[in-house]
Structures are given as C-alpha cells and as structure tokens.
Amino acid sequence: MDDHVPNKGISNGISHSDWSPSSWRIKPIKQPVNYEDQALVDKATAKLRRLPPIVTPTEIWKLRRALAEVAQGKAFLLQGGDCAELFDYCNDQAIDSKVKLLLQMSLVLIWGGNKPVVRIARMAGQYAKPRSSPMETVGGKQMPSFRGDILNGYPSDQRAIDPDRLVQAYFHSAATLNYLRAQLASGIADLHNPMEWELGHVGDPELQQKYTKIVESISESLRFMRTVGADTAGQLETVDLFTSHEGLLLEYEEALTRKLKHPSNRNVPPTPKPAPKVSPLTGGALIDPSIPQDPETTGHYNTSAHFLWVGDRTRQPDHAHIEYFRGIENPIGIKVGPTTTPADLTQLLDIVDPRRETGKVTLITRYGESKVAELLPQHIAAVRRTGHTVVWQCDPMHGNTRSTTSGIKTRSFAAIFSELAAALRIHRECGSILGGVHLELTGDAVTECTGGSQGLQDEDLGARYETFCDPRLNEKQALELAFLVAGSQRG
Ligand code: PEP
Ligand code: MN
C-alpha cells in the first residue's frame, strides 16, 4: 500500500503558495487507489461537485473557536466513533446509541474536568480506511483488502473498487447527519430527561459505588440548575455535536472542497506566547503571527465534515495528503506516532499552520502504553519551541492493538487506560495540557476489546465481534473509561 504514484516531473519541494483543492495531485501519494475506469471516477466526482455542502463555514468556525478554547485548557475534547463506519450503520438505532453514549461520556468528563466538553463524532463520513497491505486473508481466502465502504465492500464478492461508492458515501454521510441534526433538535440531548446509566455490569462493589456517586452528583447538578432557573436560554435542551473523518480519499475531499464566504465572526484568540521568527528545527522562515488575519473574504472549506484528520500512514510533509490539508480552513488533526520525529512535527506544523492559529491543529498522539513516556515529552518540547498552540489529544487505541493466540485483533482496556493516564500525567508534568481523547467506540454491546468491569477475556471475544476494521470499546467500556478519566482529572 506504500506505492508512490509517479510525481509527474514536478518538484517535491514544499511551496507555501500555489495551493488549490487539486494541487495534491502533483505530489507523491501514499495509499493510492488504482481505479480501473477513470471515466466512472470523473462522473462520480462531477456529481459530488454539484451537490450541496454537508456542513457550513459558520459551523466549521464554531468548532474552530471551541478548539481554541480546548488548546488553552478552557474546554475538553471528546472524539469517538467507529474505526470503519459502514453504510449499513446509517440507521436510527446505531446513530442513537452512539450519540447517547457520547453525550453520557461528555457529562462525566464535564464533571471530572469542571469545564465544557467539545464533542466530535467519528461519524457521518468515516468510510475510508488505510491498509498496510493491498491483499488480506479472510476465512482462509486471499482477497483485495477492504478499504472502507467508500471504495469497496467487505463481502468477498464486493472487493473490487467501485467509483459509484464515492457518491453513495455522500448520501450516507448526509442522511446520517440529517438524522443527527433532527434528533438533537428534537431533544435527544435534553438533559431535563433522566438518563438510563445502566451500571449493573460493574461487579466490583467499590467501583459500582464510585460510579453511582458520580452519576448522582451529575443528576444533582442538573436538578439544581433547573431549580434555580439556570436554563433560561434553553441550554440544557440540546448540545453541539460535530462530525469528523480521516481525510484519506482525496478525490472525495477535493470534490467537496468549496470556495465560500467566511462567516463574520471567525476570529480565534491570538496565540498567547511570542513566537520565534525562524523555526528552530527546520530553519525555515515563519509567517509573523502579528500580521492580522487574512483579509480575504473567502476561503476553501472542506464541506464534507467539520473536522478532518491525516492518518499516521499519510502524514509525510512533502506528500499529497499534507498538501491538501494545508489549504483548508477546517480545524485539522494529525496522527502522531512512534515513527514521528520531532523534526517532522515541527515541519508539519509550519506547513499546515503558518499563521500559528490557536487550536487550528490537533495533534492526536498514539504511541502505545510502553512508548508514551519516552516519546510524548520530546514531542511536547519540540512543539513548544515552534510557538504553535495546538490541541493535544490522546488516541490510546492505535498503539495498543494486539492479536490473541487465535489471531483475533483486540485491545485491552487496561493498556488503553494506561496510555491515557500516562498522557494526562506527562502533560501535567511538562506544564502542557492534555486537551482531549480520541476513541474507537460503539454504542452497542460488542465484545472486541478485553477487560473493563465486565471482565471480558480473550475467549469471550467471539460472542459479538462485529468490527470490520479495528476493535472498538463497547458502550460499557467507553463509559467506564470516561469515569476513570474524570477520576484522574479530579486528581
Ligand atoms: C484510525 O484512526 O482508524 C487509524 C487508522 O489510525 P492511525 O492513522 O493512527 O493508524
Ligand atoms: Mn482504527
């Protein structure tokens, strides 16, 4: 999967000008797609270009401002959802259960951190998956790898790349977000309604008591707010929920990138500390942050989701994905792993955030529980030297994947919490801020990760192992992780 598409004779050098939604096409690319019939791809992207935006610049800037708060430690970011979202998950039960879980987790985290929580679902578009090999073996049979519903299907007879899926992705994304918006407007997040917390699975009586206390404390606070009339603006009736996906399939992202008018209130707070004029690691000149925000009235927005991230496999500074990402106004994430060097990080930030806008970039760290203590402090120090103010988000899932003796891909709850707890502690020790968490989870009672209060063992994974890519926390494990994080936040 690491083949480069030939560079068509144009320099690999990083230029800060000459960006367009299609300028990624002249760069080498990781995870390329070899479509058999280019005419069908052109037809699909032409259709996508005519379709209306799924999200708007006003919403995108609302999230940008919220992430600026996160970067400064004034809010906490919760991002979660499936590893690979299937078109099939576009149904009311699957959407409702995920929204309810994210909402409950966010209440626990508000209680823990005593600050607002920004919620981003990995949903309504998380259809493209990077793969380490073009082929995989399923049920003893070799076949082309499943690359996500936007390219091919999981069943063995649907593994051929089908360009029409690009258009299907748009409609599934739009239908999911339409239902999400309708449910939020109809009161799915109405905090006046008592919630079902279902803590019966927690076998340990001490833990059960601890969690019950947290829930009681949250319910008590909500009751109090109601009694004193603190909800005059109807703020308890709904919440903001933003959408996100990995910006992997650039044909799709390009077709939904539009030049649109900026909303009038797009300012984010300036970066609080003075920044050096020259990047200490790359030696490259940086744009002076005292220069006022771009006076242009329009900018390029990726209208397929509020937030997009670049994966660990596609974040090379001189390659296609970073070229695409540097030109959009959306807040963006970059996965940071064991192979990211401090110099890479500095260079990447200078490319995608030349104006050093607070919270424009979220660094999503995913080292693994055994590597976080060694690598995170180096990365924190490198970023501090650059003068960029980022959101630091911990993804404790992707560095902790293991195989059971029978070859099932899983993750242990203990390893996940261990990396997360270490990230919290290390940021604190370094005088930095852990701004949020990035989780793979589902609202259903699956058995894909081991551990947690249900005590799932390797042998139990077969009961409901339903993921089509990485193992997800089930609803109980995800909520429990929120309880543990909240406990650590309270000290
Ligand atoms: C993912 O988030 O599903 C993923 C593939 O992560 P990473 O790029 O960190 O490996
Ligand atoms: Mn994953």
Automatic annotation (TrEMBL):
A Pfam family reported for this protein in Swiss-Prot or TrEMBL: DAHP_synth_2
Protein encoded by which gene: ARO8_2
Cofactor: how and how many bound: Binds 1 divalent cation per subunit. The enzyme is active with manganese, cobalt or cadmium ions.
Catalyzed reactions per annotation: D-erythrose 4-phosphate + phosphoenolpyruvate + H2O = 7-phospho-2-dehydro-3-deoxy-D-arabino-heptonate + phosphate
Keyword list, A-Z: Amino-acid biosynthesis, Aminotransferase, Aromatic amino acid biosynthesis, Cadmium, Cobalt, Manganese, Transferase
Documented EC number(s): 2.5.1.54
Pathway of action: Metabolic intermediate biosynthesis; chorismate biosynthesis; chorismate from D-erythrose 4-phosphate and phosphoenolpyruvate: step 1/7
Key word Transferase present: yes
List of residues binding Mn(2+): 83, 398, 440, 470
GO biological process: amino acid biosynthetic process; aromatic amino acid family biosynthetic process
Family as reported in the entry's similarity comment: Belongs to the class-II DAHP synthase family.
PANTHER family the record matches: PHOSPHO-2-DEHYDRO-3-DEOXYHEPTONATE ALDOLASE, PHOSPHO-2-DEHYDRO-3-DEOXYHEPTONATE ALDOLASE 1, 2
GO MF term set: 3-deoxy-7-phosphoheptulonate synthase activity; transaminase activity
Enzyme class label: transferase
Transferase recorded as keyword: yes
Residues where phosphoenolpyruvate binds: 122, 335, 366
Cofactor(s) annotated in UniProt: Mn(2+); Co(2+); Cd(2+)
Protein name: Phospho-2-dehydro-3-deoxyheptonate aldolase
Organism: Friedmanniomyces endolithicus
Highest taxon listed in the record's lineage: Eukaryota
